[in-house]
Protein: Abi-like protein
Organism: Actinoplanes derwentensis
Amino acid sequence: MSEFEILRQRFSPERMAPYLAAMNGDLGAALDLYSWNAGVSAALGETIGHVEVVLRNALHERLSAWSRQRFQEPRWYLVRGLGLQERAVDDIRAARTRVARSARPETPGRVVAELGLGFWRFLLANHYDGTLWRQTLHRAFPGQAQRRVIHDGVAVLHLCRNRLAHNEPIFNRPVADIHATALGVAGWICPVSQGWIQHHCRTVDCFVQRPRP
């Protein structure tokens, strides 16, 4: 058995199948594409990670200010009057539990860091259009006034993040478009942050090195 065939078996024939198909059955080229996929996934994941931090901090900032003004409690995640859906309440409860298990004092920053991208995505959903969005969250996006556009952009990043987390192929996805969406979301919040993320992003350099059949 050749080295390439051993690797195909170890990575699993099923897993390698889409790479083989993309490279017209050339196993060596398929393994090159597999390696490239891992590299561009890491680079894109890094970019999305930076955008996620900018996004959650912007939303947290707005929620904290609004909650302090309306409920005299800056820890918005403790306020029942926020009108969060049960799913969001469960996410917050789980986040606080993880902080408690870490044996560290609970702080707003630690709770926010435990809330995943999906949590923030769904805060931008239509359900909150007449409440949280109009009352405060829209102020987190000076560069984009349309909630649906923002939600759809964040949804693209969330779905991509899930694919990356499960080591699924990204070569057959619109990597350049996803990268542009990530920078777009950052720019709607803070052009300075967008510029920094773009400067340090490795996705474009990886993208142009993609193996071809």
